[in-house]
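Our preliminary data section would be incomplete without showing what the modeling component actually yields. Below, a chain of 297 amino acids is followed by its predicted structure, encoded as tokens that our downstream tools consume directly.
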Amino acid sequence: NNNNNNNNNSRDEAMPRLYSTTLHADEAMPRLYKNTIFESGTTLSFNYENTPDGYFLDHNGLLATGFQSYIRIIPEKNFAFCILANDLSVDISSISDILTLEYTNGEYKHKLTLPLNNIIPQLILKNFPIGFYKGYESGITEFFIENNELYLNLFEQEYLIKYYGGNKFYFYEEGFLIEIVVDFEKNKIYLNSEALIKIKKPKFINKSKIARKLDGIYSHKEKVLPNIEIFKEYDNELIRIFLVDSMEEFEIFLLDSETEVILPDYGHLILKYDENDKIIGFELDGFEEYEILHSNL
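Predicted structure:
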């Protein structure tokens, strides 16, 4: 019996212990509005959304492996829900909007009011930290001034940025909203709540060359996830990926560097080369490993 007790104690010590705590509303709410910024610049946050469906806190997550999630919190209504889906074709954001409108009986309407005089003052424009930045979700972005107006180059699209007032800026058109907050003291920029890191001007990337090297079918190293194929559309210089098993197509790729490819809203591919400068595989989001199964070259 003593031996059995000793064994049980050893097993108990080896098991991870779970702890729980209760936060009161006055403690929890400030945490929801506060961004957690890692050294890499990645921001973990709940976004305070101001959209046609009202004010609420929300956060979403997507993986190129086929999983997505969405959480929405409406503090004023004491209401929250979370949606999980194993299919990227499901529009869980729209489902969230429907649930929000249903629960609030359509009360949560658009409250966004943009200032009429949204010209950026010259003093603010002069001190805006223009240049190149890098974010996990936004990739490489550039803020630049042309003809005394501020522009943002995001995913190779240029947007004319206007002024909220104070240290807040925005772009808004047909329901599409980009929000920018600037910490002028630290020269830091937050784009849609994501902290951006200042970088030097990127070197020219031969996108066609790297895209050609990526062509092929890749298999998951542990054979757990389905095979994927990467191919280039030569007419418009786009790179696409889809699951071989389901033929489900993913978002357009954007090349960040010769070793990194960005999938908007999904994550990153870190490319792996051999001694002959051939791509032999990649890491997806830094932990899922894929290796080349068949090359189209």
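The first helix runs from residue 2 to 14. Confidence is low (pLDDT under 50) at residues 7-20, 37-42, 50-54. Preliminary results of this kind motivate Aim 1 of the renewal.
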